[in-house]
Batch of 2 targets.
Target 1
Amino acid sequence: MLTEFDIIAKYFQQGGLAADPALHRGVMLGIGDDCALLSVPRGKQIALSMDVLVEGVHFPAGAPADLVAQRALAVNLSDLAAMGAEPFCFMLGLTLPQAEEAWLDAFGRGLRASALKYKCPLVGGNLARGPLQIAIQVQGLVPAGTALLRSKARPGHDVYVSGEPGRAGLALEYIQGRCTGLTPEQEAELMSAYYQPEPRLQLGQALRGIAGAAQDVSDGLLLDLERMAVQSKVRISVDIASIPLAGVLTRLRTSTDVFRLALTAGDDYELIFTAAPSKKRAVLAAAKKAGIRVSCIGKVSKGEGVEVIDLSGRPLAFSRAGYEHFA
Amino acid sequence: MLTEFDIIAKYFQQGGLAADPALHRGVMLGIGDDCALLSVPRGKQIALSMDVLVEGVHFPAGAPADLVAQRALAVNLSDLAAMGAEPFCFMLGLTLPQAEEAWLDAFGRGLRASALKYKCPLVGGNLARGPLQIAIQVQGLVPAGTALLRSKARPGHDVYVSGEPGRAGLALEYIQGRCTGLTPEQEAELMSAYYQPEPRLQLGQALRGIAGAAQDVSDGLLLDLERMAVQSKVRISVDIASIPLAGVLTRLRTSTDVFRLALTAGDDYELIFTAAPSKKRAVLAAAKKAGIRVSCIGKVSKGEGVEVIDLSGRPLAFSRAGYEHFA
C-alpha cells in the first residue's frame, strides 16, 4: 500500500507542480518540511485566500479528478484576481476515502496543468483519509497599497462585470440532467465554464489604480453585488438590459431562465468592479489588454442594497438569491 | 436560519479572534474581502503550514468543539515551532453538516482562546456545508535564513526530544475506552495532552542558531525520527534508557506499553532536534529559557534509518510504526 509520503512523492512533488528554485524565486523551501518558506519581494504585500471544495456540495460526486483539481485551484486564484494580485504559490489539504491511484494520477495531472499555466507552484499541505474534500490556500503578491477592495465602491461609480455570467449555472443543470439536447460544442463550452473557470488575473492586475471596488462572482451576480454594496455602504442599481448574455444561454433557455441564470447562478468566477465615469476609457483599455469583454451593467448611488431596473426604468422584483450554504 | 455571513460575523469576527490593527501590525486586511493582505517585516521570511483535521480520524466523533478548535490550531502552530518561527496569523476552512449554534459558539470560544494565547489572529477562510472537517493554514515569521530544517542533522550530532512523549497516545486509549481507573488528575492531564498540546514555540525560537535539524512529533517519535533521517541522509540511534517517561504512563501501564506509547504514539507535538555536542550547554539554556524539559535520547551517525539501542547496547527489534493514513 502507498503511504502518505509515497503518494506525495509520486503525485505531488513532480516537476511542474512543486516549486522550482529557478522559476519560483521567492519560494525558499517547498514541500517536505514542517513549513514552506517564502521571501516576499520588497514593496509587495502578500494576499491570502482559502477555499474548501466538498464532494457533492461544490462539485458533483464522481466528477473527473483532473477537472476537480483545476476547478479547486481556479476558484482560489479568482480571489487573487479580485484583489489585483498575481499568483505566488499554493497549499493543498486533500482528504480522500482511499488512495486510488487512477484518481490521484488524474488529480495530480489536472493540478500540474493549472500550476504551470498560472505559474503557481504547490509548496505544502497535507493528505489524510476522510470524505473527499479539497482545501486549497493560495498566496499572491500585490504592490503595497494597490490591492482592489470590496469596500471602495463610491456613489457615481459605474458597475462592470467581466465575461458573460450564467454559463456555469447552466452547466450545473446539464450535469444534473436538467438541461438536454446540447451540441458537442455547447457541452464542451458549458463543461469548461464549470470545471475550468478562467480566473481573471490579468484583468484584476490591469485594473489596479483604475477600479474602485472589485470582487469575484462565486455565489451569483446579485448576491455578490449585495455583498459589495454592504461593504462599501452604497446602493447598486443594475440595468437588466445591459447584462451580457452568453449565446449558449439564449439558445437553450427562455428569457426568464436566461436572466435567472445570469443574475443568480454562481460558479462563473467573473469579476465585478466599479470605476468612476472618468475612468471608462482606462477600464476598456484594461479589458482589451486582458483580452476579456467587460460590460457596464449599472450604477452606484447613496443608499443600500441592490436593485434591478427593467427596460422601462422600474425596479424589478428579482430575487437576489444566490448560493447560500446554511440558509 | 443563519447564513454563512451571519455565522462568520457572529462567531468568527469577534474581538480577540479577528485581527486588531493595533495589535497585529502586519495584518493590513483580515476577514471579509476576497483575500487577506499581509505586510511582511523586512528581514523576515514567512513560514506556511496547513493541516486538515477530520472528525473520526484526527479527533473522536462528538468531541467537545472548543477542544477540537484548540487542537486544530495547536497542531498547525507546532509546525511553526519546528521551524523556529513565531505565529503571524491563520486561515480556517470549516465544513460542518449543520449550523448548530451551541457547537459554533463553543468552537469559536476555543479558537479565540488559542488565538489570544498565541497572538495569532484569524484573517480569513471559508465555511461550507459538508462532513465535519477543520482545515487550518498558518503563517509564521522567522528571520531570513534562520529557519530550522529537517535536513540539517549531521553525523556526530546529539538527538533531543522535548517533554515526555506518549501521553497523548494514552489519552486516545482512554477516550476510546481502552484505559480505565484514572484519578481525576490523571484524566485532566491526559485530556489536556491530547486536546491542548502545547506547541513548543518558545523552544523552537530559542533553538535558532543552535539546533541542526528540527521537526515536530505528530505521528510517533520513531516514525518522525525516520523522516528526519531520510531528509538529512543520516542514521539516528535512539538509546531506550534515555527516553523520558511521563509519570502518568508509568503508573498506568506496563513497561512494554510505556515504551510502545513513548516511541510510536503520535499526537504529542513535542519537538525532536539535533545539535552538535559543543552546543549542549546552549541547548540546555534554550530549554530553560523556554521552560521545558529536553532530553538527549540518541546520536546521529553516517548511514540511514533509525535504530533503538537497549540497555546492553544491542539494537532492539522495535517497530517504528507510527500513524500512517494510507498504509
Target 2
Amino acid sequence: MPAKAIVISIGDEILYGQTLDTNSHWISGELDNLGIRVLKKITIGDTKTDILSNLKEAEEKADIVLLTGGLGPTNDDLTKPCLTEYFNTHLVRNEDAYENIKEIFEKAGWEMNESNLQQADLPANCTAIKNSIGTASGMWFDTEGKVIVSMPGVPFEMKQMMTDSILPRLKAQFVSDGIYHRMIRTIGIGESKLAELIKDWEDQLPNEIKLAYLPTMGAVKLRLTADSDTDLVKESIQKQIDEVLPIIEKYVYGFDDEEIPNAIGRILQERGQTLAIAESCTGGYLSHLTTSVPGSSEWFRGGMIPYSNDLKRDQLGVEEKILDEDGAVSEPVVLALAENVRKTINADIGISVSGIAGPGGGTEQKPVGTVWIGYADKDKSVAKKFRFIRNREINIKYSAIAAFNMIRINLDKD
Amino acid sequence: MPAKAIVISIGDEILYGQTLDTNSHWISGELDNLGIRVLKKITIGDTKTDILSNLKEAEEKADIVLLTGGLGPTNDDLTKPCLTEYFNTHLVRNEDAYENIKEIFEKAGWEMNESNLQQADLPANCTAIKNSIGTASGMWFDTEGKVIVSMPGVPFEMKQMMTDSILPRLKAQFVSDGIYHRMIRTIGIGESKLAELIKDWEDQLPNEIKLAYLPTMGAVKLRLTADSDTDLVKESIQKQIDEVLPIIEKYVYGFDDEEIPNAIGRILQERGQTLAIAESCTGGYLSHLTTSVPGSSEWFRGGMIPYSNDLKRDQLGVEEKILDEDGAVSEPVVLALAENVRKTINADIGISVSGIAGPGGGTEQKPVGTVWIGYADKDKSVAKKFRFIRNREINIKYSAIAAFNMIRINLDKD
C-alpha cells in the first residue's frame, strides 16, 4: 500500500489565473516517481480559513501534505501564521535560518529590515529546511506518523529544497520497498499504433511490471514500473526493454529523463558532429530548444532565421526562381536552406523549417499548418512535408519536434 | 456579493505530473475577469469515488462548478458516467451532438466506430454544448440555481466552448452588475519601487476602484477593477489612468492584454520600422517570442544566432581583436552585433544579446548570469549590462524580456 500525498498550492495570484502553477505539477511527478500516490492537488488563495480547513482535510486523508507558497515577508503571506495556529504553537527565532538570511543579504549587499529578519522566526514544533537561494525557510512538521511540509512558492527555491532534502527524507520514511521506473522514449508514432505494435510483448509482461503509455506532444513515453528496486527487478526490467527494443527501435530516441534535444545533442557529441539551423516558420523556437540543452555550444554552431524571402535568397542562397515558382513553403526551398546553412555556418548537419504557422498566410493549396522540413549532411539532402493544425503556437511546437525527429532519423541511417 | 466558483480538473495524467494543467489556470483567469470569485481549484484522477465526492463538496460550497477532462471515448474516462450517477439519471442520444460527431468524421474521412457514437449519448438532464473541433460534447447542468458544467480536457476545445457559450451564459446568469478591469503594464521597475512612486495616487483612489499589483518575470502589471461596467465607471477609471501615467510613463509599455513583444510589434508597425535580431546566449528565444506575435513578418525581418565566436566574426563582422581582448560577453561585442545585424539583414533596428546563461562558462569577473544587450538604429548604438542569477532557463527568459525593454526605451527617445 503506497503512502498517500496531497499537494496544496497557496496564493491569490495562482487561484485567480495570474500565475501558472507549475509547482504542484513538478511535485506530483516527483512523488509519483518515488512511488508515493498523489490523491489530490488543491489550489487556494491567501485566506486564513481556507488554508486551515484544507490543511485539516488533507491531513485526515493523506500521510504527506506538501504546501507551497505564502511564505513571503509581507502581510498578505499567511501560510506561516496559519501553521502556527494549526499546531497551536508559537514562533521562535531559528538560528540557522537567521544566519542564512544574513548571508544572503550580505552577499547581495542589501540592507536587512525587520520584515526580513522575521522570516527567521518559525513555529516551535517544526524543523527548518534550508533555502540556499532565498530568505523563506522551509518547514517540516512531524505529526503522529504523518508529515506536513511547507515550502516557498518560488519554483527554483522549492525544487532545490525538494531535491536536496525533502524527497530523500520522504523516501526514507514512507517508501519501504522502493519503486523502480524505466522510461522508453519514442517519437513519430501514435499511442494506439504503438500499442498495436507491442501487443504481444505487453501481454507477456510479468505481473510485477506495470506498463504505462504517456503521450505528450508528438511523442509517446513507455514507462515500466516495479514496486521494488532490487537488482533482480532491475535486471528483469532491462531484459524486457531489450526484448521490446528491436520491435520499436526506429521510434526510440532515448531513455529515462532524456528529452529529444538532449538526445540529439548526445548523439552529435558522440560522433563529433555539429549542427546548424535555418528556421523560418518556427522563428527561433527550434534553436531555443536546442540551446536550452546545457553545453549545447559543444555541438550547436549557430542558426539563422530568414523570416523574409529576400533573406532566404541573399543570406542563404535560395534562388529567386524557386521562391517565385514553388513559394517559400516548398521542398526545393527547405532543401536549399538546409544545404546552404550547413555550408554557410560550416557545420556537419543542416536542418531547415519553412511553413505557414498561421493565423494568416494560408491558401487552399497550402493551408495553415503546412510545414516543410529539410535535412542535409555531407552525403545527402532530404525533405519532408507535414500538415499540422490551425493554431500558430501548436504548429510552431510540433514543427520543432518534427525537425528533431528528422535529424534523428537521418543520422541513424549514416 | 460575487458568485463563487470551483474548478475541477480530472485526469490521472494531470494528477501524476505527466501533463501540466493549463486549463484551470486559464479558466480561473477568465472567471476572475468576469467578476466571479474562484474559491478553489482541484485536480483529481480518473477515479469514480473521487469525482463524486469532490463534485458534491464543490456543489455545496460554490454557485458554479466547472469540470474539465475525462470525456474521451475510452473506458478510463469516467466523468460522464459519474455525472449520470450523480444526477441519478440515464443517458439519451443527443441529436445535435450526434450530427456534430458525424460531420467531424466525414470531414476527416475517418470511419466511425461504436465508441465514437456513444459520445453522442448524454445525461438526460443536461444541455449539450457544441464542440466544433472535437467529438466530446460539453454538458451544462442547472441544479437549483447552481450550475455544473463539464468540458473536455483538450485545451483548445475547452477554450472555444468557454468563449463561445459558457462564459456568456455564466455572465448573463451570475454577473448582475458586470465588472470592469483595466491593466497598465510596466517593465523595468520592481513592485515595491512602483508602489512607492504611485503611493499618493493610490491613496486618493476612490473606494469603488480596486488596485492590484501583479508581478511577473521582469514586469509588474497594475490592475484597476470596478464592480460595475457603466460608462461612468469606465470614464472614472480612464481618468485615474490618465492621472497616474505621467508619473510612471517611462515604465509603461502597454495596456490590458498587450504583452511586451506585441507592444514592440505595434510600435514598429505604426512607425513603419523593422527589426533584426542577433542573439547568442538567448539562443533563439528572443526571436521565438518575437515571431510568436501573429503578423510579426510585417516588422520582423529576421535573426541570426551566432552561437560560436567564429560566426560572430565571420557572419557579423565582430573583430577578432575585440573577441580576444574583451571576450564574447562584452560591450563592444554587443554593439558590433547590433550594428552589423541591422546592416546585414537590412532592418531599421538591430538588437543583440550575449551572455553567460550557465551552468558552465562563468568566471570570477563574468559569473553565470552576466548578460550584455546592444541596440542600434540609424542614429545611435547603446549597450547595457545585466546581472541575472545562476539558472540557465531563467537567465535566458529574463534576457529576452530585458532585450524587448531595451528596444522600447531606445525607440521612445527617437
